[in-house]
Specification:
The chain is mainly α and 237 residues long. Helices cover 66% and strands 3% of the residues. It is globular, with a radius of gyration of 19 Å.
Protein backbone atom coordinates (compact mmCIF):
# COMPACT_ATOMS: atom_id res chain seq x y z
CA UNK A 1 0.00 0.00 0.00
CA UNK A 2 1.24 3.48 -0.80
CA UNK A 3 2.57 5.29 2.26
CA UNK A 4 -0.28 7.60 3.27
CA UNK A 5 2.24 9.96 4.94
CA UNK A 6 3.59 10.90 1.52
CA UNK A 7 1.37 13.48 -0.08
CA UNK A 8 0.21 12.80 -3.65
CA UNK A 9 -0.24 15.76 -5.93
CA UNK A 10 -3.07 18.08 -4.94
CA UNK A 11 -6.03 18.23 -7.28
CA UNK A 12 -7.68 21.57 -7.86
CA UNK A 13 -11.32 22.37 -8.45
CA UNK A 14 -14.64 21.32 -7.03
CA UNK A 15 -14.49 17.67 -5.79
CA UNK A 16 -18.02 17.14 -7.10
CA UNK A 17 -16.82 17.92 -10.62
CA UNK A 18 -14.37 15.02 -10.45
CA UNK A 19 -17.26 12.51 -10.49
CA UNK A 20 -15.94 10.30 -7.67
CA UNK A 21 -16.88 6.63 -7.89
CA UNK A 22 -17.27 5.84 -4.21
CA UNK A 23 -18.27 9.09 -2.52
CA UNK A 24 -21.94 8.09 -2.46
CA UNK A 25 -21.06 4.78 -0.76
CA UNK A 26 -19.00 6.50 1.93
CA UNK A 27 -21.71 9.14 2.42
CA UNK A 28 -24.51 6.58 2.82
CA UNK A 29 -22.48 4.56 5.32
CA UNK A 30 -21.70 7.72 7.30
CA UNK A 31 -25.36 8.75 7.48
CA UNK A 32 -26.46 5.22 8.41
CA UNK A 33 -23.90 4.98 11.22
CA UNK A 34 -25.18 8.22 12.69
CA UNK A 35 -28.86 7.25 12.50
CA UNK A 36 -28.23 3.84 14.06
CA UNK A 37 -26.27 5.57 16.80
CA UNK A 38 -29.23 7.88 17.42
CA UNK A 39 -31.45 4.91 18.22
CA UNK A 40 -28.77 3.14 20.25
CA UNK A 41 -28.32 6.22 22.47
CA UNK A 42 -31.69 5.52 24.10
CA UNK A 43 -30.04 3.04 26.45
CA UNK A 44 -27.26 3.67 28.94
CA UNK A 45 -24.96 0.68 29.24
CA UNK A 46 -22.35 -0.35 31.79
CA UNK A 47 -18.98 -1.70 30.68
CA UNK A 48 -16.44 -2.58 33.37
CA UNK A 49 -18.41 -0.45 35.80
CA UNK A 50 -18.35 2.63 33.55
CA UNK A 51 -21.53 4.17 32.12
CA UNK A 52 -21.82 4.90 28.40
CA UNK A 53 -24.59 5.78 25.96
CA UNK A 54 -25.38 2.66 23.91
CA UNK A 55 -24.11 4.41 20.79
CA UNK A 56 -20.53 4.03 22.03
CA UNK A 57 -20.47 0.67 20.21
CA UNK A 58 -20.85 2.28 16.79
CA UNK A 59 -20.74 6.07 16.98
CA UNK A 60 -16.93 6.48 16.87
CA UNK A 61 -17.11 5.08 13.32
CA UNK A 62 -18.95 8.27 12.37
CA UNK A 63 -15.80 10.23 13.11
CA UNK A 64 -13.65 7.76 11.20
CA UNK A 65 -16.02 8.25 8.26
CA UNK A 66 -15.71 12.02 8.64
CA UNK A 67 -11.93 11.70 8.62
CA UNK A 68 -12.03 9.60 5.45
CA UNK A 69 -14.34 11.99 3.59
CA UNK A 70 -12.37 15.09 4.60
CA UNK A 71 -8.99 13.51 3.87
CA UNK A 72 -9.93 12.18 0.43
CA UNK A 73 -12.66 14.50 -0.87
CA UNK A 74 -12.12 17.70 1.14
CA UNK A 75 -13.99 19.86 3.63
CA UNK A 76 -16.78 20.85 1.21
CA UNK A 77 -17.69 17.20 0.62
CA UNK A 78 -17.57 16.49 4.36
CA UNK A 79 -19.81 19.49 5.01
CA UNK A 80 -22.35 18.04 2.59
CA UNK A 81 -22.36 14.69 4.41
CA UNK A 82 -22.72 16.40 7.79
CA UNK A 83 -25.77 18.36 6.62
CA UNK A 84 -27.31 15.24 5.08
CA UNK A 85 -26.81 13.41 8.37
CA UNK A 86 -28.32 16.37 10.23
CA UNK A 87 -31.38 16.44 7.95
CA UNK A 88 -31.93 12.68 8.19
CA UNK A 89 -31.61 12.82 11.99
CA UNK A 90 -34.34 15.46 12.11
CA UNK A 91 -36.54 13.36 9.81
CA UNK A 92 -35.84 10.24 11.88
CA UNK A 93 -36.89 12.03 15.05
CA UNK A 94 -40.05 13.47 13.50
CA UNK A 95 -41.14 10.06 12.20
CA UNK A 96 -40.61 8.45 15.60
CA UNK A 97 -42.59 11.28 17.21
CA UNK A 98 -45.44 10.94 14.67
CA UNK A 99 -45.67 7.19 15.29
CA UNK A 100 -45.66 7.85 19.04
CA UNK A 101 -48.63 10.23 18.98
CA UNK A 102 -50.78 8.31 16.49
CA UNK A 103 -53.44 6.10 18.12
CA UNK A 104 -52.31 2.57 18.82
CA UNK A 105 -54.09 -0.26 17.00
CA UNK A 106 -56.61 -2.30 19.03
CA UNK A 107 -54.84 -5.12 20.82
CA UNK A 108 -51.39 -3.50 20.57
CA UNK A 109 -50.42 -2.97 24.19
CA UNK A 110 -46.86 -1.75 23.91
CA UNK A 111 -47.32 2.01 23.75
CA UNK A 112 -45.45 2.62 26.98
CA UNK A 113 -42.55 0.44 25.88
CA UNK A 114 -42.33 2.33 22.60
CA UNK A 115 -42.31 5.67 24.42
CA UNK A 116 -39.58 4.53 26.81
CA UNK A 117 -37.25 3.20 24.09
CA UNK A 118 -38.03 5.22 20.96
CA UNK A 119 -40.17 8.01 22.34
CA UNK A 120 -39.49 11.60 21.34
CA UNK A 121 -37.46 13.20 24.13
CA UNK A 122 -36.82 16.72 22.84
CA UNK A 123 -33.78 17.58 24.91
CA UNK A 124 -31.98 14.31 24.13
CA UNK A 125 -32.75 14.59 20.43
CA UNK A 126 -31.65 18.22 20.29
CA UNK A 127 -28.53 17.52 22.37
CA UNK A 128 -27.57 14.63 20.11
CA UNK A 129 -28.07 16.53 16.86
CA UNK A 130 -26.31 19.69 18.07
CA UNK A 131 -23.43 17.63 19.52
CA UNK A 132 -22.97 15.76 16.26
CA UNK A 133 -23.14 18.98 14.22
CA UNK A 134 -20.58 20.79 16.38
CA UNK A 135 -18.27 17.82 16.83
CA UNK A 136 -18.19 16.71 13.20
CA UNK A 137 -17.58 20.21 11.87
CA UNK A 138 -14.78 20.73 14.42
CA UNK A 139 -13.28 17.36 13.43
CA UNK A 140 -13.42 18.11 9.71
CA UNK A 141 -12.06 21.65 10.10
CA UNK A 142 -9.06 20.57 12.18
CA UNK A 143 -8.21 17.68 9.85
CA UNK A 144 -8.44 19.84 6.71
CA UNK A 145 -6.26 22.56 8.24
CA UNK A 146 -3.70 20.05 9.51
CA UNK A 147 -3.53 18.40 6.09
CA UNK A 148 -2.50 21.67 4.47
CA UNK A 149 -0.10 22.50 7.32
CA UNK A 150 1.61 19.07 7.16
CA UNK A 151 1.52 18.96 3.34
CA UNK A 152 -0.42 15.73 3.46
CA UNK A 153 2.01 13.88 5.72
CA UNK A 154 1.35 12.24 9.09
CA UNK A 155 -2.20 11.06 8.49
CA UNK A 156 -2.19 9.45 11.94
CA UNK A 157 -1.60 12.85 13.57
CA UNK A 158 -4.45 14.42 11.60
CA UNK A 159 -7.00 11.71 12.38
CA UNK A 160 -6.16 11.54 16.08
CA UNK A 161 -5.71 15.31 16.48
CA UNK A 162 -9.02 16.11 14.82
CA UNK A 163 -10.77 13.47 16.94
CA UNK A 164 -9.35 14.94 20.15
CA UNK A 165 -11.00 18.27 19.27
CA UNK A 166 -14.21 16.98 17.67
CA UNK A 167 -15.01 14.38 20.30
CA UNK A 168 -14.44 16.91 23.08
CA UNK A 169 -17.16 19.12 21.62
CA UNK A 170 -19.46 16.15 20.95
CA UNK A 171 -19.10 14.53 24.38
CA UNK A 172 -19.56 17.72 26.38
CA UNK A 173 -22.53 19.04 24.39
CA UNK A 174 -24.39 15.70 24.35
CA UNK A 175 -23.84 14.58 27.93
CA UNK A 176 -24.52 17.97 29.48
CA UNK A 177 -27.40 18.84 27.16
CA UNK A 178 -29.11 15.45 27.49
CA UNK A 179 -28.63 14.67 31.17
CA UNK A 180 -28.18 17.92 33.11
CA UNK A 181 -30.82 17.90 35.83
CA UNK A 182 -31.54 14.21 35.33
CA UNK A 183 -28.24 12.84 36.65
CA UNK A 184 -25.89 14.19 39.34
CA UNK A 185 -23.19 16.56 38.07
CA UNK A 186 -20.51 14.08 39.10
CA UNK A 187 -22.15 11.33 37.06
CA UNK A 188 -22.39 13.60 34.01
CA UNK A 189 -18.75 14.63 34.26
CA UNK A 190 -17.74 10.99 34.65
CA UNK A 191 -19.77 10.11 31.56
CA UNK A 192 -18.14 12.93 29.59
CA UNK A 193 -14.68 11.74 30.60
CA UNK A 194 -15.24 8.05 29.95
CA UNK A 195 -16.99 8.53 26.60
CA UNK A 196 -14.35 11.04 25.46
CA UNK A 197 -11.39 8.87 26.38
CA UNK A 198 -13.03 5.76 24.90
CA UNK A 199 -13.86 7.47 21.60
CA UNK A 200 -10.32 8.86 21.25
CA UNK A 201 -8.84 5.44 22.04
CA UNK A 202 -11.22 3.89 19.49
CA UNK A 203 -9.96 6.32 16.84
CA UNK A 204 -6.32 5.63 17.67
CA UNK A 205 -6.86 1.86 17.53
CA UNK A 206 -8.61 2.22 14.17
CA UNK A 207 -5.70 4.14 12.61
CA UNK A 208 -4.49 1.17 10.50
CA UNK A 209 -8.02 0.72 9.14
CA UNK A 210 -8.25 4.44 8.36
CA UNK A 211 -4.91 4.29 6.52
CA UNK A 212 -6.10 1.32 4.47
CA UNK A 213 -9.43 2.92 3.49
CA UNK A 214 -7.89 6.31 2.68
CA UNK A 215 -5.12 4.74 0.60
CA UNK A 216 -7.54 2.58 -1.38
CA UNK A 217 -9.95 5.44 -2.02
CA UNK A 218 -7.25 7.85 -3.14
CA UNK A 219 -5.91 5.34 -5.63
CA UNK A 220 -9.36 4.31 -6.87
CA UNK A 221 -10.66 7.88 -7.20
CA UNK A 222 -7.44 9.52 -8.38
CA UNK A 223 -8.24 12.41 -6.04
CA UNK A 224 -6.59 13.94 -2.99
CA UNK A 225 -8.15 17.32 -2.20
CA UNK A 226 -6.27 19.98 -0.26
CA UNK A 227 -8.41 22.72 1.25
CA UNK A 228 -6.34 25.72 0.23
CA UNK A 229 -8.58 28.75 -0.08
CA UNK A 230 -11.65 26.81 1.04
CA UNK A 231 -14.56 28.66 2.61
CA UNK A 232 -14.86 26.87 5.96
CA UNK A 233 -18.24 28.23 6.93
CA UNK A 234 -20.48 25.38 8.08
CA UNK A 235 -23.54 27.20 6.74
CA UNK A 236 -23.34 25.96 3.16
CA UNK A 237 -24.51 22.77 1.46
Amino acid sequence: MENADRAPASLAGDPAALKPRYFDVVAVISVAVYLISQAASAKLISIAGLVYPGAIILFPLAYIGNDVVTEVYGFAASRRVIWLSFAMAVLFSLVLWAVQVLPAAPGWNHQRSYEVILGFVPRIIVASIVAFWAGDFANSFVLAKMKVATRGRFLWARTIGSTVVGQAADSVVFCVGAFLGLLPIGAILAMVATTYVTKCAYEAAATPLTYAIVGRLKRAEGVDVYDRGTNFTPFKF
